[in-house]
């Protein structure tokens, strides 16, 4: 008698119990399907030996097989965290297993890799996981038809970490246990019934309760349970026949068109996260070897993986595995989506760094796999910068995929498939996974959600579903594939399922979608706002490295012009290998811009490695910069084009000189240089202001953009002390002159304030270093809100609901307090060249802050040089500036442009942006006046009403318990300006606040004045100058037998060789311009090019030899030209 319709919920529970899925299944497990999955098991014929690798080394196979192996047994401990054990497994097939499929079950409670005895990486294993049947995979198929007595010899490399590392924070002393080593015969009929029942249960639980397919699934599943008897194996076949009939009767052979879900096997591997980079290398190999093995048994299975860095690691460390990946790529089974170097954060990197992500990724794709990727694949990054569509399009791509905006906490993003437009209007076809996951296990609920959560079913019938274990790698298991196979064309589901590559999906989407909605500007993630601040040292290193690489690229390009000169001296050895070094530097920066590394959401062990990488880069790069700059200044003549007739080299003998190279797109005005006093004459030293550090101060003025200019140190000091105002320091001069003298600064101490004044600004500080008044003298405008204090430090409780290092909740602003004790402002330098005030505060019992407040004679802003000793627990620190400015939006710098965000909370969309990311500045402006907040290494900002805040430090404890504890150094500046933001020079000031001029002190017989690039459009910025990339050594995935030496190609070219240079500009304010660009370098045949440096249309040239280039708002324009002799 069938009574299930009277108690459907109890029948559903009964099915779960049969699948051993419930919490109370243990007493009834023997009645479930689980004991039926293995027909036989045996460990008696296995010989097991182990080699414990010393320390925490990760060694290659060739070294491992030479290790000293000792007898091992099940139950032995494996550890500590990150240790490696190599097992040698010798297994003989028992007589009773003859003629059957035999697998090795090897569960080390952690991750492992199976190797052949000849060193072929065969398959990854994941043991000891919390969810049986999902992430757990411990079986390795030895043979489909065993021969009695046949012996199998294998190696198993065990890594003492689980799929998700060793905890959050990582436990350095975690141990695992070797749980299972056995031979087993799988019961494929039982496995098939298991997968059938999982789909039936999914239909019962997730499909519309009134649908016929749900009723049929419940009936069939119940009938199966009534047929199966745990102690009667023959009932398995009858039960399986019921399931088989259900699926056969509902196989759609091509009826009405319904929604189609494209399922793509995927393995999201966080390049750095809860494990170090070296473990990621092994995770990549384990995961990808496993997917190649799936392809042997599932002919329709297709797998896709991103991140060129991971491919390069596999290529270098696992060449045989890499060659198999290349082979399956040609067959369309293994789809490389490595169009970026890593899956990077897109909020914090500069526009140029984002370009290099695509440049290095696409070049790697083309060289190793024969083609570029048309798809930008960033499923897990924490929001997306407004210019990304333009960068994507200029990198040879058409499509963009992510899932992350479904994590929004305030508002549901309104689209699934849409056209996303950059600030300049460039479109890219965009799709979000409507199942809201990139790690689907292939369950019915994901197919259903792919339809029900798709917000654009009016315009398209397609959704993409990436499936497979991820974050820690792994990828699809056979279970995932089997589930999806059963849902192909299954009538009654909301969608059909097909296996195809993501590129095929997007191509079909592009052909069939109509009337798609558009989204313009940034894709702001309403989550993970703490990532703009966590791990402050990494963010500082990132900014400094980006600046340094920009300078090295520039010098390397210019030096090649000098090498071409017939009289040029032999270049330094570092230049001969300059390209490989620059590539290495850039790849380090790009790697560390991965979306869990730069954002600050990884473990301490990884950051120890990352800091060392940055420190090495900055040390070596700074040395190279000095060496290359000095070579540039060597006494030989750079070749000149007709456009540089006014450029000159003089042979004036100087007792001491300084050469300034301004590499920004604006003039360098009234810049203070700290000069070693022994480089100046005694008379000059007597006139100079002596800094607190013992150096002499001099002022250089009017260094044009992109120019080198030489100054006599003695004459600089004379100019710096003529007509100075009276100063009060005993060791300073006391010259007559008017108080309005241009270029000098005074300090006046009053009862409760300290007043600092130069020709441009007049600032009053209270005794604690807070700004009471800030007047722009040219218009007598007060910048600080009436009665308010600026440069005020505020602490907030930072207790997010989840994701400690990642998150910052809106309610943090409701609970704040000031420092425990405020210090007293002291005057350290009083001018005339520079005024420096110093104050030290006690933040708390464990933390302190000291700050130098700096105003120079020619400065229009206040600089705050800040040092913090930070030891807090879940506290966040901000500095705030209440301004005498009213505007309903603030302007923030982003990659290649700016974005405007509201300064009010009118809607939930406005409130959600209570903390935002910006690069070098944020600006609040009215029609005729504004104030910008500049910084040298910070990214977290907020502006509510008239109060601008810069987020300085965070103190999370997960996943790094010591995150940001210790010393910090950073600078910021407050810059009021006349006119609105669009009429200001904020972009230039912020650029120069971050990019110091190159300075060379010397007594050379030559001085060097040269303007390398100049143009007449103030809203156009030259972001980078670089040597064009060389031809790929690889062609269509084939490595040459005798690869060309990169060093010789980048050394002094032969007389008939050509060298190309790439210049990348962008329009910075949202306007139009016609730029007439002049170059002193002999650049010929200029052509527009994309980010990949593919040459396009020729650039127009006027009668004066200047390049005529049109700029639309926020347009990125790259030009490739040939460097002639």
Characteristic key phrases:
alpha+beta, nine-stranded antiparallel beta sheet, 22 helices, single chain, elongated, about 1100 residues
Explained architecture:
With 1125 residues, this protein is an alpha+beta fold. The protein is built from 22 helices and 59 strands. Strands 36-37-38-39-48-45-44-41-42 form a nine-stranded antiparallel β-sheet. The longest helix has 29 residues, at 536-564. The termini are far apart. Mean pLDDT is 91; it is low at 636-654, 722-741 and 1042-1056.
Layout of SSEs?
Blueprint: H1 8-18, E1 38-42, E2 46-52, H2 61-64, E3 70-71, E4 77-78, E5 84-92, E6 102-107, E7 111-116, E8 121-126, E9 139-143, E10 151-159, E11 176-177, E12 180-186, H3 188-206, H4 212-227, H5 235-249, E13 259-266, H6 277-297, E14 303-306, H7 308-317, H8 319-330, E15 334-337, H9 351-369, E16 375-377, H10 388-394, E17 399-402, E18 417-421, E19 427-432, H11 444-452, E20 462-467, H12 478-486, E21 495-499, H13 502-512, E22 518-520, H14 536-564, H15 573-576, H16 578-591, H17 604-632, E23 648-650, E24 657-662, E25 671-675, H18 682-687, E26 689-690, E27 696-700, E28 707-712, H19 713-721, E29 746-749, E30 753-757, E31 761-766, E32 771-776, E33 781-782, E34 792-797, E35 816-817, E36 826-830, E37 834-842, E38 848-856, E39 862-870, E40 875-882, E41 889-894, E42 897-902, H20 908-912, E43 916-917, E44 921-925, E45 929-935, E46 940-944, E47 947-953, E48 966-978, H21 986-994, E49 998-1002, E50 1007-1011, E51 1013-1014, E52 1020-1027, H22 1046-1050, E53 1059-1067, E54 1073-1079, E55 1083-1089, E56 1095-1098, E57 1100-1101, E58 1107-1111, ...
Parallel strand pairs: 13-14, 13-20, 13-21, 14-15, 16-17, 17-19, 18-22
Antiparallel strand pairs: 1-12, 2-3, 2-5, 4-11, 5-10, 6-9, 6-12, 7-8, 7-10, 18-19, 23-50, 24-28, 24-49, 25-27, 26-27, 28-50, 29-30, 30-31, 31-32, 32-33, 34-35, 34-40, 36-37, 37-38, 38-39, 39-48, 40-47, 41-42, 41-44, 43-46, 44-45, 45-48, 46-47, 51-54, 52-53, 53-59, 54-58, 55-56, 55-59, 57-58
């Amino acid at each position: 008698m069938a009574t299930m319709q009277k108690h459907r919920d109890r029948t559903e529970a009964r099915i779960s119990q049969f699948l051993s899925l419930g919490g109370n299944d243990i007493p009834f497990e023997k009645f479930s399907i689980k004991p039926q999955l293995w027909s036989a098991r045996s460990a008696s014929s296995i010989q097991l030996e182990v080699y414990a690798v010393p320390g925490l080394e990760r060694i290659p196979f060739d070294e491992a097989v030479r290790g000293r192996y000792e007898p091992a047994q099940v139950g032995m401990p494996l550890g500590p965290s990150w240790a490696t054990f190599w097992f040698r497994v010798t297994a003989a097939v028992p007589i009773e297993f003859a003629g059957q499929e035999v697998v090795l079950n090897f569960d080390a409670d952690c991750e492992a890799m199976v190797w052949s005895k000849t060193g072929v990486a065969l398959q990854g294993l994941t043991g000891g996981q919390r969810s049986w049947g999902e992430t757990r995979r411990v079986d390795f198929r030895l043979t489909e038809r065993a021969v009695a007595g046949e012996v199998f010899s294998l190696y198993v490399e065990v890594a003492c970490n689980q799929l998700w590392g060793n905890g959050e924070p990582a436990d350095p002393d975690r141990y695992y246990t070797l749980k299972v080593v056995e031979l087993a015969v799988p019961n494929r009929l039982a496995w098939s019934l298991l997968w059938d029942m999982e789909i039936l249960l999914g239909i019962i639980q997730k499909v519309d309760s009134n649908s016929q397919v749900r009723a049929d699934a419940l009936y069939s599943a119940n009938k199966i349970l009534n047929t199966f008897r745990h102690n009667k194996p023959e009932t398995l076949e009858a039960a399986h026949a019921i399931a088989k009939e259900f699926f056969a009767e509902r196989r759609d052979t091509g009826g009405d068109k319904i929604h189609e879900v494209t399922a793509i096997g995927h393995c999201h591997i966080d390049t750095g996260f809860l494990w170090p980079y070296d473990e990621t290398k092994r995770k990549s190999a384990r995961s990808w070897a496993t997917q190649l093995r799936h392809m042997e048994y599932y002919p329709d299975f297709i797998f896709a993986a991103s991140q060129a860095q991971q491919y390069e690691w596999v290529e270098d460390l696992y060449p045989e595995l890499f060659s198999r990946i290349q082979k399956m790529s040609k067959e369309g089974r293994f789809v490389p989506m490595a169009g970026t170097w890593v899956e990077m954060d897109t909020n914090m990197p500069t526009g140029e760094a984002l370009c290099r992500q695509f440049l290095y990724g696409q070049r790697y794709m083309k060289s190793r796999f024969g083609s570029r990727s048309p798809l930008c694949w960033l499923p897990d990054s924490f929001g997306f910068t407004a210019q990304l569509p333009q960068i994507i399009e200029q990198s040879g791509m058409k499509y963009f995929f992510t899932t992350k905006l479904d994590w929004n906490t305030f508002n549901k993003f309104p689209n699934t498939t849409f056209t996303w437009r950059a600030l300049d209007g460039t479109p890219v076809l965009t799709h979000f996974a409507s199942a809201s996951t990139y790690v689907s296990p292939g369950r019915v609920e994901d197919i259903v959600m792919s339809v029900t959560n798709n917000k654009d079913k009016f315009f398209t019938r397609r959704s993409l579903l990436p499936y497979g274990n991820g974050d820690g790698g792994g990828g699809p298991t056979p279970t995932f594939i089997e589930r999806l196979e059963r849902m192909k064309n299954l009538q009654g589901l909301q969608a059909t399922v097909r296996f195809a590559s993501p590129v095929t999906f997007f191509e079909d989407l592009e052909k069939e979608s109509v009337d798609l909605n558009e989204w313009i500007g940034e894709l702001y993630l309403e989550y993970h706002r703490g990532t703009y601040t966590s791990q402050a040292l990494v963010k500082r290193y990132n900014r400094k490295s980006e600046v340094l690489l920009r300078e090295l690229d520039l010098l390397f390009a210019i030096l090649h012009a000098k090498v071409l000169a017939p009289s040029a001296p032999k270049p330094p050895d570092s230049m001969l290998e300059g390209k490989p070094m620059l590539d290495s530097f850039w790849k380090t920066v790009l790697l560390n811009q991965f979306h869990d590394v730069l954002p600050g959401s990884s473990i301490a062990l990884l950051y120890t490695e990352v800091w060392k990488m940055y420190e090495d880069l900055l040390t070596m790069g700074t040395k190279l910069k000095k060496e290359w700059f000095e070579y540039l200044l060597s006494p030989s003549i750079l070749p000149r084009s007709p456009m540089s007739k006014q450029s000159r080299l003089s042979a004036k003998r100087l007792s001491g000189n300084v050469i300034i190279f301004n590499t920004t797109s604006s003039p360098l005005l009234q810049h203070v240089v700290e000069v070693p006093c022994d480089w100046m004459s005694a008379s000059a030293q007597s006139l100079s202001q002596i800094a607190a550090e013992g150096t002499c101060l001099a002022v250089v003025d009017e260094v044009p953009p992109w120019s080198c200019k030489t100054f006599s140190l003695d004459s600089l000091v004379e100019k710096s002390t003529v007509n100075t105002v009276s100063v009060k320091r005993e060791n300073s001069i006391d010259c007559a002159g008017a108080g309005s003298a241009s270029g000098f600064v005074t300090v006046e101490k009053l009862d409760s304030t300290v007043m600092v004044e130069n020709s441009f600004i007049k600032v009053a500080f209270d005794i604690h270093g807070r700004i009471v008044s800030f007047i722009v003298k040219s218009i007598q405008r007060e910048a600080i809100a009436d009665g308010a204090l600026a440069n005020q430090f505020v602490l907030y409780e930072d207790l997010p609901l989840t994701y400690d290092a990642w998150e910052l909740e809106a309610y943090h602003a409701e609970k704040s307090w000031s420092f425990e004790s405020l210090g007293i402002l002291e005057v350290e330098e009083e001018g005339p060249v520079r005024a420096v005030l110093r104050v030290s505060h006690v933040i708390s019992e464990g933390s302190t802050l000291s700050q130098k407040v700096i105003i120079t004679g020619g400065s229009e802003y206040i600089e705050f040089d800040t040092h913090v000793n930070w030891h807090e627990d879940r506290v966040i620190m901000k500095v705030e500036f209440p301004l005498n400015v009213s505007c309903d939006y603030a302007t923030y710098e982003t990659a290649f442009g700016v974005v405007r965000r509201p300064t009010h909370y009118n809607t939930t969309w406005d409130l959600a942006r209570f903390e935002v990311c910006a690069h070098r500045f944020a600006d609040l402006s009215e029609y005729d006046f504004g104030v910008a907040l500049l910084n040298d290494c910070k990214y977290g900002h907020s502006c509510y009403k008239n109060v601008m805040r810069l987020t300085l430090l965070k103190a999370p404890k997960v996943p790094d318990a010591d995150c940001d504890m210790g010393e910090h150094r950073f600078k910021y500046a407050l810059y009021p300006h006349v006119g609105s933001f669009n009429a200001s020079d904020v972009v230039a000031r912020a650029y120069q606040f971050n990019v110091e001029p190159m300075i060379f002190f010397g007594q050379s017989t030559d001085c060097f004045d040269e303007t390398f690039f100049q143009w007449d459009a103030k809203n156009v910025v030259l972001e980078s100058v670089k040597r064009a990339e060389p031809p790929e050594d690889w062609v269509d995935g084939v490595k040459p037998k005798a690869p060309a030496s990169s060093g010789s190609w980048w050394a002094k070219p032969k007389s008939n060789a050509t060298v190309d240079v790439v210049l990348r500009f962008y329009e910075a304010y949202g306007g139009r311009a016609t730029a007439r660009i002049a170059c002193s370098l002999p650049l010929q045949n200029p052509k527009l090019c994309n980010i990949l440096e593919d040459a396009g249309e020729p650039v127009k040239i006027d009668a004066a030899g200047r390049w005529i280039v049109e700029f639309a708002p926020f347009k990125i324009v790259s030009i490739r030209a040939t460097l002639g002799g």
